[in-house]
Design brief:
34% of the residues lie in helices and 17% in strands. The protein is of the alpha+beta class and 229 residues long. It is globular. It has one domain: 2-Layer Sandwich (Muramoyl-pentapeptide Carboxypeptidase, domain 2). The relative contact order is 0.17. The termini are far apart. The longest helix is centred in the first third of the chain and has 21 residues. InterPro entries: A_A_dipeptidase, Zn_M74/Hedgehog-like. It comes from marine metagenome. One of its GO terms (biological process) is cell wall organization. One of its GO terms (molecular function) is dipeptidase activity.
Length: 229
């Protein structure tokens, strides 16, 4: 028994070290969604400067949507169901490296910039964003969470976002799915997206109408930090 206990004491740090190393490696279970859903619209904001930080976010060296394969296949079904309604998915973010989350935390610690505040968090101060909108750990880093909306084709054949009453990454109560100030049309559009996603096993986040997590994500506590390339 004594030898077994000593062996366990040695094994636990080794397993912890292995997990620590694994977070920097893209596992085979996480795949490129574009290979599975080529007809979705990919607008990966954090791989560009078109986001609330005003720069390409750390860890986003390529504009790719990566997700766990189960979540990706469920999303493929969402896209198929959306197409029946004449719509397409627009995808803003998927897997998010932990270093990107740290980049967001660093941004929170910087002085307010009026232009950024007006566009992304007009009614809330940066400290008020911590928790409800920006967290120290993100489900995105597990590979089961994405930010998405719906698009409809216009007369020129281009897919444009349908009006949800607020834009992606507007950190404001109006972005809460059931905010009472939105119009009936906006509520209908939000619930169209919500119903499509929930119909294939995704769970909505009530604070952000665009945020969904695949419900079969399991109990994994690994927050990955491999770079998107």
């Amino acid at each position: 028994m004594k030898h077994s206990f000593l062996a366990l004491l040695v094994l636990i740090p080794l397993l912890a070290c292995q997990d620590s190393m694994n977070i920097y490696k893209n596992p085979d279970s996480i795949i490129d969604v574009k290979q599975l859903i080529p007809d979705a619209v990919f607008d990966l904001r954090y791989a560009s400067s078109n986001n609330f930080t005003g720069k390409q976010v750390s860890g986003y060296e390529a504009a790719k949507c990566l997700l766990d394969h189960e979540a990706a296949h469920a999303l493929q079904k969402v896209q198929q169901n959306a197409k029946v309604k004449g719509l397409r998915l627009i995808i803003f973010d998927c897997y998010r490296p932990q270093r990107a989350v740290s980049d967001f935390m660093n941004w929170l610690g910087q002085p307010e910039q009026l232009q950024v505040k007006d566009r992304y968090h007009p009614h809330l101060s940066k400290p008020e964003l911590l928790g409800p909108y920006i967290a120290k750990k993100s489900g995105h880093s597990k590979g089961f969470t994405l930010d998405t909306t719906l698009a409809k084709q216009n007369a020129n054949g281009e897919y444009r976002e349908i009006d949800m009453g607020s834009s992606f990454d507007l950190f404001d109560p109006i972005s809460n799915t059931d905010d009472p100030s939105i119009s009936l049309s906006h509520r209908k559009n939000r619930y169209l997206l919500k119903d499509l996603m929930e119909g294939e096993g995704f769970i909505a986040y009530d604070m952000e109408w665009w945020h969904f997590t695949y419900s079969q994500s399991g109990e994994s506590e690994l927050y990955y930090d491999f770079v998107i390339r």
